[in-house]
Amino acid sequence: MATQFAAARRWTYEEFAQLPDDGNRYEVIAGELYVTPSPRTLHQVIVSRLNRLLGAFVEEHQLGEVIVGPIDVLFGEGDYMAPDLVFVRAERHDVVSDRGLEEAPDLIIEVLSPGTAKRDRGIKRERYAHLGVPEYWIVDPVARMIEILRVSEGIAQPIEIAGASLTWQPVPGGPRLTLELAHLFRDFR
After folding, report:
1. Are 48 and 96 in contact (CB under 8 A)?
2. Which of 6, 56, 86, 181 has CA atoms 20 to 30 A from the CA of 64?
């Protein structure tokens, strides 16, 4: 079960970086510290499958980098998040540093867990849109669907729901990858 601690102050990156490496996931979202235990097996299987599918496609076409999380995305003071999977286009590779990502990636993917669903669909979705993430996927393994939020010119577009397949074009005018969701969610009921 996820636990939330109210922040009495703004967290600096230095303070955030000193949090323990104890198997929990620590994030500071809009100035508040959130602590989540390690994810369950189903969550990790879905993250691994997405990493293999997207990573192979991105590498084959030399489009950039898919990075499996948790990886720190340092949006600015008071917003340090650790998504499950991110994609950064090749021409933006300079946002990747030893600390994590210094700016918004081109795609963030969060796989829902019982303890994080409300946060992933709520404050994280709001913050990601506000902080300039152009595309955000919320993967729901129980409903066997993916919610897609795209932000264009600072305006959040209506949420799309992919139930059978999802077509992803990571670079405008570039190649497209079609994900069959039955394959992604196979072996789970």
Report:
1. no
2. 181
- Mean of pLDDT values over 147-174: 92
**Domains with residue ranges and CATH for the chain:** 40-184 (3.90.1570.10)
Is the pLDDT higher at 22 or at 132?
A: 132
Whole-model pTM over 0.90 = no
What proportions of the chain, in percent to the nearest 5, are helix, strand and coil?
Answer: 25, 35, 40
Distance from chain centroid for Cα 90: 18
pLDDT at res. 160? 94
User: For residue 137, what are its two tokens?
Assistant: 């996927």
Q: Count CB atoms within 10 A of the CB of residue 127.
A: 17
Cα distance from N-terminal residue to C-terminal residue, the chain: 22
